């Protein structure tokens, strides 16, 4: 094979999205040599792949950014309240340039295997281009939503038009002008892409299985006063975000439950929350995500809003979520989503009532109708949280069980950071950590900083091998499930529990206890000399 090289580093990092980029920066700053492998041709991760029209972050741009460099946060200015994908990708590129990160990244290389040799305490990592790297530590930053999922619909590959997935969008963009476009999926991606496609297409047919709760984002140009205020007081805002449940400073920390207020007071607060245009809406009362009756008051408010926005009452009824409590599937943030169904060139098909049976050369077929199409957009989501990790054959030399085998009944980690039996392997925003329930950048920074400090500790104490203890892992998995069970989250058939992938074990993947509480636990574990981990001083 051409250009095959083998080299040794202190740490190998898988992925150069926001997690991988910060890990490169942070570990290098502690004097470690690093090599990152990235499947894309540039940095950005999620924001590199998700180039579909309308792609935009659902955390306000002023908060969805790194906090580790005062210079960086002072010099970068966001142009909109919610940043678009191109702007976030430019930001990622700026960070890579500013800190010279690309020199330690091998692009266009997908890691295929990683094997730990306990005799020498080294991981050997191999890529699809034949590159081999060894390192004492392996850090996965492969993304929680980076393995797009295309449902296996019979005849899919016979389709005569173009097939797209929102999570693997063509770099050159797609011109839908005058075309008949079908969109499958109405999660966050579908809800963002549908209004954009509808504006260009001759006709847009939406194939909806489950209606979703979505809030109007009220996106707008960045308010210069807000930007100025943030820049003056970043330290305060960031400190608040670090200890907030969702890693977002502007989210409320409610003390009242929904029934502490009268119906008219609740209605007033919901109206204010609705006009705010922020996912913090579900935090207006402290019991929205734990008490079904409280949740119903908010869900009903949003259902009424949907009925107000959609002119055709039959279409409004189809778009009204009714099978899960609000907030238990990721709440969506949209621009003109519901209003889009008032257009003459948009139609909605209920594929729960009339399932998609096949795709032919001409288009999509349900059990009662055929829909001729020129293009199909799959907004059908991801093999979330574990997909990218388990896409790599991770094993320990001399041990029968690979990581995929160990996790065959669902992921098992201690603090979402390590898994027993796989030494010196760290997960950034891994299963069992707050990750996807938070502002990802806040969670990424917390993990990278914890890991960097941990690796320094290991080096200064001559520890060569670290591993999660089985009993602490068992206790953490139990705790993650117990906390999830105190909430309404398990009532939704969501990707949070792997319900979107046929055959995927139903395990609650993220930790719902909140970033602040989780951070305190991780810090306490570190303070106690990495309690719950085995630290081995035996040099290889
Ligand atoms: P998703 O939330 O998993 O939604 C997938 C959609 O496809 C669902 O409506 C699902 O229906 C439907 N679907 C899947 N298979 C289907 C089939 N065989 N037939 C018909 N419908 C099918 O995926 P996503 O929208 O890509 O979002 C994933 C996550 O990415 C979000 O929850 C969010 O965390 C993140 N995201 C964030 C943003 C943002 O920041 N604004 C934007 C996009 C994505 P069911 O519900 O019935 O399964």
Description of the molecule:
It holds the Pfam family Pyr_redox_3. This is Cyclohexanone monooxygenase. The chain has helices at residues 18-29, 46-49, 70-75, 85-98, 188-200, 224-232, 234-243, 263-276, 292-309, 313-319, 337-340, 387-390, 403-406, 440-460, 470-485, 515-527, and strands spanning 6-14, 34-37, 105-106, 111-117, 122-127, 132-140, 162-165, 180-184, 203-208, 214-216, 332-334, 346-350, 356-359, 363-366, 370-372, 375-378, 393-396, 425-427, 465-468, 533-536. It has 540 residues and is α/β, with parallel strands linked by helices. It has 2 domains: 6-147 and 384-536, FAD/NAD(P)-binding domain, CATH 3.50.50; 180-220 and 242-377, no CATH class. The strands form 5 sheets. Strands 1, 2, 3, 4, 5, 6, 17 and 18 form an 8-stranded mixed beta sheet that branches. It starts with 5 loop residues before the first strand and ends with a strand. The model has no long low-confidence stretch (mean pLDDT 97).
């Amino acid at each position: 094979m051409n250009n095959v090289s083998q080299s040794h580093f202190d740490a190998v990092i898988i992925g150069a999205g926001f997690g991988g980029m910060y890990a490169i920066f942070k570990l290098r700053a502690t004097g470690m040599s690093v090599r990152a492998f990235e499947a894309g041709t540039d940095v950005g991760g999620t924001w590199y792949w998700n180039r579909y029209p309308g792609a935009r972050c659902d955390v306000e741009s002023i908060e969805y950014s790194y906090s580790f460099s005062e210079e960086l946060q002072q010099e970068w200015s966001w142009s909109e309240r919610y940043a678009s994908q191109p702007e976030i990708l430019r930001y990622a590129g700026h960070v890579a340039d500013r800190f010279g990160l690309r020199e330690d990244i091998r692009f266009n290389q997908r890691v295929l295997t990683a094997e730990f040799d306990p005799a020498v305490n080294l991981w050997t990592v191999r890529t699809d281009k034949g590159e081999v790297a060894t390192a004492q530590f392996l850090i996965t930053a492969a993304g929680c939503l980076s393995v797009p999922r295309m449902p296996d619909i019979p005849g899919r590959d016979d389709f005569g038009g173009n097939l797209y997935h929102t999570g693997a969008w063509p770099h050159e963009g797609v011109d839908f002008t005058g075309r008949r476009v079908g969109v499958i999926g109405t999660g966050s991606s579908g809800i963002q892409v549908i209004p954009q496609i509808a504006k260009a297409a001759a006709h847009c047919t939406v194939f909806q299985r489950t209606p979703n709760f979505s809030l109007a984002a009220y996106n707008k140009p960045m308010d210069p006063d807000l930007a100025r205020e943030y820049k003056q007081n970043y330290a305060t805002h960031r400190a608040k975000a670090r200890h907030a449940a969702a890693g977002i400073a502007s989210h409320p920390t409610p003390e009242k439950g929904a029934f502490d207020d009268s119906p008219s007071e609740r209605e007033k607060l919901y109206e204010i929350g609705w006009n705010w245009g922020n996912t913090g809406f579900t935090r207006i009362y402290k019991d929205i995500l734990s008490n079904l009756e409280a949740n119903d008051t908010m869900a009903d408010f949003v259902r009424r809003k949907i009925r107000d926005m959609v002119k055709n009452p039959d279409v409004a009824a189809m778009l009204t979520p009714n099978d899960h409590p609000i907030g238990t599937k990721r709440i969506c943030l949209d621009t003109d989503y519901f209003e889009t169904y008032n257009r003459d060139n948009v139609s909605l098909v209920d594929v729960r009532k009339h399932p998609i049976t096949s795709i032919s050369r001409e288009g999509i077929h349900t059990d009662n109708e055929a829909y001729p199409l020129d293009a199909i957009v799959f907004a059908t989501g991801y093999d979330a949280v574990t997909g990218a990790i388990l896409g790599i054959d991770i094993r320990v030399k001399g041990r029968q069980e690979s990581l995929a085998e160990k996790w065959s009944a669902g992921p098992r980690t201690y603090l979402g950071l390590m898994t027993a039996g796989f030494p010196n392997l760290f997960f950034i925003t891994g299963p069992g950590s707050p990750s996807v329930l938070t502002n990802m950048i806040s969670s990424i920074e917390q993990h990278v900083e914890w890991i960097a400090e941990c690796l320094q500790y290991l080096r200064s104490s001559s520890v060569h091998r670290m591993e999660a203890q089985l009993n602490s892992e068992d206790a953490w998995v139990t705790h993650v499930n117990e906390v999830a069970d105190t909430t309404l989250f398990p009532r939704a058939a969501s990707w949070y529990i792997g319900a979107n992938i046929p055959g995927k074990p139903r395990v609650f993947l993220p930790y719902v206890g909140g970033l602040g509480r989780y951070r305190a636990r991780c810090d306490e574990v570190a303070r106690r000399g990495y309690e719950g981990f085995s630290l081995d001083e035996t040099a290889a």
